[in-house]
Automatic annotation (TrEMBL):
It comes from the Bacteria. Pfam families: Thioesterase. This is Thioesterase. InterPro entries: AB_hydrolase_fold, TEII, TesA-like, Thioesterase. The lineage of its organism: Bacteria, Bacillati, Actinomycetota, Actinomycetes, Streptosporangiales. Transmembrane segments: none annotated. The keyword Cell membrane does not apply.
């Protein structure tokens, strides 16, 4: 099973945007982005194992291992420049993938990190250790479509194992020593996100020797659902790509 879901193949697009979902998320979260970014960008959304159409695949519980697997799967798609966008857990994974790509001599042109504290400043949350109701309660607190799925008892049996796995993965993450990134980084957050403050998000500047920018939009942890046009416009402007008509 391949690692990426491409809602619309664009063989002539000069740039690929690899999108990494949040804890409990899947590639379908980024499906609407394909139309939103326009013809100059090909969206490749990462499908983590153990969910959706990869439900039969073994879950990966270590962030560094998962990043290595994603970076390795990107190798056949290295024929065009690539940017990375990750939300929440996906932001940390995108950062680790960017480090690996840089190490291999094919750094991304830009790293977008959304709704996440930086790798050196991890929260003390331990959601993975809670009982089922506690995990569901946290998903509801953060919002997003995945919370709705967890309200359904039948869906909960399917969804809860990979949601708990993802919380354990990100809560067990610790940044390892290594060269700093040299690529530009943009952090984007919602102004009412209970998970990350503007001051904390500014700490992403420490992750790179390249240019850094911070954007704050109205909304909570899943601000990018309601503010998709603004987020996509920011991505396109930053990458120097014309906005889709």
């Amino acid at each position: 099973m391949t690692w990426f879901r491409c809602p619309e193949s664009r063989p002539w697009a000069p740039l690929r945007l690899f999108c990494l979902p949040h804890a409990g998320g899947s590639a379908v979260f980024y499906r609407p982005w394909a139309e939103a970014v326009g013809p100059a960008v090909e969206v490749q959304a990462v499908q983590y194992p153990g969910r959706a159409d990869r439900l039969a695949d073994a879950l990966v519980s270590d962030a560094h291992q998962l990043a290595r697997m994603v970076a390795g799967a990107m190798a056949p798609l290295a024929d065009r420049p690539a940017a990375l966008f990750g939300h929440s857990m996906g932001a940390i994974l995108a950062y680790e993938v960017a480090r690996l790509l840089q190490e291999r001599g094919v750094p991304p042109v830009h790293l977008f990190v959304s709704g996440a504290r930086p790798p050196h400043d991890r929260p003390d949350d331990r959601v993975a250790a809670r009982d089922d109701d506690g995990v569901v309660a946290e998903m509801v607190r953060l919002g997003g479509t995945d919370a709705e799925a967890l309200r359904d008892p039948e869906l909960r049996e399917i969804v809860l194992p990979y949601v708990r796995n993802d919380f354990g993965l990100i809560e067990g993450y610790a940044e390892r020593p290594g060269p700093r990134l040299g690529v530009p980084v943009t952090a984007i957050i919602g102004d009412a996100d209970p998970h990350v403050t503007e001051r904390q998000a500014a700490g992403w500047a420490r992750a790179t020797d390249g240019p850094f920018a911070l954007r704050v939009l109205p909304g909570g942890h899943f601000y990018l659902t309601d503010r998709r046009p603004e987020v996509v416009a920011e991505v396109l402007r930053t990458l120097g790509v014309p906005t889709a008509p």
